[in-house]
Design a protein that fits this description.
Protein name: Ribbon-helix-helix protein, copG family
Shape: globular
Structural class: mainly alpha
Order of helices and strands: HHHH
Organism: Celeribacter halophilus
Radius of gyration: 14 Å
Length: 70
């Protein structure tokens, strides 16, 4: 029996413009709204990410974060 889809949490999120555009694009392509798309990505995180690439991208993002906040 499939799990019932129920939104249980709402939280304020800060996103970059590029990140939000990509989320909206992904959600539209998948036929989901943004909240459903985020739920899908995080529920399936390990199967939709490449661990090596994720670690590398996270290092790059963190190294640029201070500049991006200005």
């Amino acid at each position: 029996m499939p799990k019932r889809f129920r939104m249980t949490r709402r939280f304020p999120v800060s996103m970059t413009e590029d990140g939000y555009r990509r989320l909206r694009s992904f959600a539209r392509e998948a036929g989901l709204d943004e909240g459903e798309a985020l739920s899908f990505l995080f529920e399936n995180f390990n199967s939709v990410t490449d661990e090596e690439k994720l670690t590398h991208r996270l290092r790059l993002f963190n190294s640029e974060l201070a500049q991006r906040k200005r």
